[in-house]
Amino acid sequence: MALTNTTRSYGAVERSFHWLMAVMILAAVPLGLIANRLPHDTPEALARKVEVFSLHKTLGVAIFGMALLRVLWVLVQPRPAPLHPERRIETALAGAVHGLLYLSLLGVPLAGWVEHAASDGFAPILWPLGQSLPLVPKSAAVAEVAGALHVAFGWSMILAIGLHVAGALKHQLADRDETLARMAWGRAAGPGRAARSAGPALAALALYAAAAGGALALMPASRPETATALAPVASDWVVEEGSLGFTVRQMGSEVGGSFPDWTAAIRFDETPVEGRHGDVTVTIAADSLTLGAVTEQARSAEFLDVAAHPRAVFRAEILPADQGYIARGTLDLRGVEVPVTLPFRLEIEGDLARMEGSTTLDRRDFGIGKSHADEAAVGFGVRVDVALTARRGG
């Protein structure tokens, strides 16, 4: 049994790559489609969804590694010539489909891997390596773009596989030639010579570029709609920049999210009056929440219920503490008011102030995720981190 290719046959290495990757793809594609459709409204359903997604991602990374090896092998091997080189249109179409398949074997898993690496926590790859990638930041925008490309490239792969199978069946049932036998058993067949052309490869690249362009063009329409942005508020200290983020454990992994849309009305004096430095009112657009791959789940009625409660408000007095300051007041979230104390550090240089603070909330106090009573699915504690730079005299 020959290991290498000839111009008339496929060697054992090429055939092993082909059939092993076919089995892996036929497992990975259905797993991805099923995982997207599985519910996540109970702890058991969420755990099942995570398991299926993890299997899908792990297979995808394995396919990417195998695809790299196969491409390297193809580059150093002769290609068996078409059995019917005189059928130029058919040969060109077959070459374009093969090119689309090779691009998909690399592009589909790579886009999915980038989406995973840019997100936090949800459905880990089932081995220690690969949870992050060099040059890929933790970014909701990067994850969204990669996710759109993953879907578009995935449908391109399904199309290419369908055309590839149809072509194989046509050769086997209509032409009754040795095309399938060459890949199945390594049988030598054909004239062993064919003119090479860059046309099919260029056609495959054009189809892939069209799929990528279409996916990116449709992204704005697929983004979840949010309410009108919060209007600016009057404040003695005007926030120039800041962040409001949080971290929760889901299925044993930390997942980071944020509320990009919020305002703060701040009254603060360095010298306390009757033990108080001032007060603050923070208004948060709950429907601006982002939480990686589970943003929609977090916005749902089971969790923040942003449709019914699009705003959260934290009202507090600013008091001195042994180290720094504390903002002590109430947080109105999801229609429930809960006492909250936020310790924070503050540095003031002239009219510029920099503040950083952190506190931990218990989601159960707000009725969030009532059906997820087991911390193994969704942690009870939610760490909130806030940082801002504000200027006096706004």
Mean pLDDT score: 88
Measured by DSSP, the beta-strand proportion falls in 25-35%
Order of helices and strands: HHHHHHEEEEHEEEEE
The total beta strand count reads 9
**What is the straight-line distance between the termini?**
81 Å
Task: Based on Cα principal axes, name the global outline.
Answer: elongated
Secondary structure category = alpha+beta
* Poorly predicted tracts of residues: 221-226
Largest sheet at a glance? 9 strands, antiparallel
Number of DSSP helices?
7
Describe this structure in words.
The protein has 394 residues and is of the alpha+beta class. Helices cover 41% and strands 26% of the residues. It contains seven helices and nine strands. It has helices at 12-37, 43-76, 88-118, 140-175, 179-185, 199-222, 295-299, and strands spanning 237-250, 253-258, 262-273, 276-285, 311-320, 325-333, 336-349, 352-362, 378-392. It has a nine-stranded antiparallel sheet, with no helix packed on it. A hairpin with a 2-residue loop joins strand 6 and strand 7. Helix 3 runs parallel beside helix 6. It starts with 11 loop residues before the first helix and ends with a strand. Residues 221-226 have low confidence and may be disordered.
